[in-house]
Amino acid sequence: MKIVLLGYMASGKSSIGKILSKKLSMRFIDLDDYIIEGEKMSISDIFKMKGEIYFRLIENKYLKEILSKKEDFILSLGGGTPCYANNMEEINKEKTISIYLQGNVSTMVKRLIKKKSKRPLIASLSDDKIPEFVAKHLFERRFYYEQAKMTIKIDNKSRKKIAKKMAKKLKKMPKS
Question: pLDDT by residue (tens digit) across 110-166?
Fold first, then answer.
């Protein structure tokens, strides 16, 4: 089983993925970390030095590389990954279970403001500009996110509770 977690930044893809990997005894891979390792530079440096187009090209390359692995794993994507280079088609191929961690605008804004300095996309925005930015982004990305095979609502739930609910749903799924 290959499980792919997608959703907006701060939806908990990495933290929930790590908890879920322990519950299901599966390897956890974070796409951003995988890219950092492969490129030997941080995501923000890749954006700064080589630009977003280069980043989206290598993101697609590394995504395909991970998806082609024979082993089972849980993969957390970057927030924008599903929206580029036919990535959702790649993700939804074969035995992959894609899960959209869906949060409403206010949930995402609350989480993002807490860690604003670690988020290059919003670091330069004033707090009052973030809700509009998030709402616009979620609207633009919804089409891609909603192609996931499963949606889990994350509003007002702890990461542990979300991971527990996901593990329960996944264990009930038929093994193909």
Answer: 999 988 877 877 888 999 999 999 999 999 999 999 999 999 999 999 999 999 999
Name the pTM for this structure: 0.94
Establish how many alpha carbons lie within 13 A of residue 154's alpha carbon, considering only the half-sphere containing its beta carbon.
29
Residue 168 lies in a domain: no
Q: How far is CA 85 from the centre of its chain?
A: 16
**Domain residue limits at 146:** 2-158
Cβ 55 vs Cβ 47: under 8 Å: yes
CATH of residue 63's domain is 3.40.50.300
Distances (CA, A) of 147 to 80, 100, 111, 136, 171: 14, 8, 24, 18, 21
Length of the chain: 176
* Contact present, 176 and 95 (Cβ < 8 Å): yes
* Alpha carbons 43 and 14: distance in angstroms, whole number: 15
